């Protein structure tokens, strides 16, 4: 399975705050549940140069990159071109994509725009809409329409994921500073358990424990109790 | 005013899909309404090296970087340290921050953790909670708790923003391919108008026009009508 991934969502509408980025959260959750560690989630506009730079940045950081958005037929859909540019590949008519789309949508110029993919791409069929997705090098590219993206992600998710880490959430009626010492010590004693601390409004603190080894979570809880926390 | 900005939100809980990134959307909207073009929104975990790399990436891309999250007192709050590392500055006790916090919270070690900022930082007071924000070089750093972040952003927003672009949304009962030619031609004829096309579920298309010059939006609408669109 894949150990590390980044998620890139493309679209000016996400940068202006008009649309909340639910796609990134959805993919992050699915990958995380499958044991993949997400190192970066990023949104960039419909600009070839910006997308390409971000792809290069992610390639130095993670094993796999998941990209959504900008695969439609209009002038502002430039993701295919940007990925080709970023990977140093030509855009060419993909025969597999043509075989999927032309029988359904004809061979008009917009269909042919959708089937023009970076050379050597593996095609991901779109069971819900038109634009096919593709995989090239270590980049998985899916449309931005959530129903399409989700259906297509489900077709390929098994290739990337494995066992999920165990997660426990605790809520404590405490200010963060009251338990900071205990958390810090627990973090030192249990290096294989990730301990997150998220202050909520007022005297309420959420603690998140995660580990690939569920027994260790029990040990952390035992340690918390020993330190006087009611968990 | 500032022309380009990036927004970085820090926190493992955002990468696992447990929490939707509302802070980034909120800041993006406020900056966008003030005429600032957002080039990148990114989320990264509580890792000094990842945060530092992302800061360097953003510095090549935009004028100002807005960062939220990881300013609390616990072991996983490493944003102060990461920004110091990324900017090549020392972390030192900030006297202005001490003067704000010690009268309210005492001089315990957790208060002193909050007041340890990159050398030369300008302090942003936190009227809602404890952790102060700061500005260093071209980086604005705010807490991740939304109520704190929002109140503090309001204290400084005027420094960065100016006139907003005019925006119009249209909804057309069309598939995207039916109007793609018209949109593409309009985009060529009106280069100072940004035209976004967002397919919705079924036969419904949202079009977003934006420009610093409202007259040009009227001209685009006139062009659409001439081409037979009911707008």
TrEMBL record, chains A, B:
Entry superkingdom: Archaea
Domain MoaB/Mog as annotated: residue spans: 6-164
Classification via SMART domains: MoCF_biosynth
Name this polypeptide is given: Competence damage-inducible protein A
Organism expressing this protein natively: Candidatus Syntropharchaeum butanivorans
